[in-house]
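Researcher: Final request for today, and then I'll write up notes for the group meeting. The sequence and the SMILES for fe (ii) ion follow.
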Amino acid sequence: MIDFHSHILPRIDDGSKSSDMSLEMLRISYEQGIRMMAATPHFYITSDTAQKFCDRRAGSYEALSKRIAESGESLPDIILGAEVYYFRGISKYDGLDKLKISGTDHILLEMPFERWSEKTLNEVAAIKEETGLTPIMAHLDRYIDFQKGTDNIERLISMEVPIQLNAECFESFFTRGRAIKMINNGLVSALGSDCHNTDKRRPNLGPCIAYITKKCGAEAVENIMDRSRKLLGL
Ligand SMILES: [Fe+2]
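Model: Predicted protein-fe (ii) ion complex:
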């Protein structure tokens, strides 16, 4: 199983606070059947450049890799990426290429938590059409309520951008119905824990996968994982 969205790297964003915490998050994930995790620290253009971000991420990854090697435990593999927060002009940003999920032409894109304007949707389309990169919608489930009364979600789906859902949306009675519907319609390409720590935002993809298996069958989960593997070029 692949966790496509996590803040597993230590001391780089509001996620893991230490290599020890990262190691514990990896252990919890492994126990839940996760064998691969995309490390996707937050990237904000207002406070960073792609190069500075990559340098910091390399340092964080190196520290964690050392700790993992010392532990000798069986833990999920880590793939480096970023959770890139949308900004006006993102499709023209010359650093975007550096923010790709390693070994792919995809970026995990976090959209604004507000009702999206025409310009915002056009900018997403421009990333796909003009940069050679494909944006993957990070936790689409978290934006849906903001788009009420619009056809923004349908428009995004019609752009054929891959969709990632967060495990948490399967935990609530109010959000899991529509998430299951999206899975049954073949619209989901990736699942993520979006884990930040070992406490309130701990790795939780295992129970989510069990729930989807119960509701949609094991094949539905396998189909999502197949799409995830394809996105990662595996
Ligand atoms: Fe996140």
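Model: The mean pLDDT is 97. The first strand starts at residue 2 and ends at 6.
Researcher: Thanks, that's everything.
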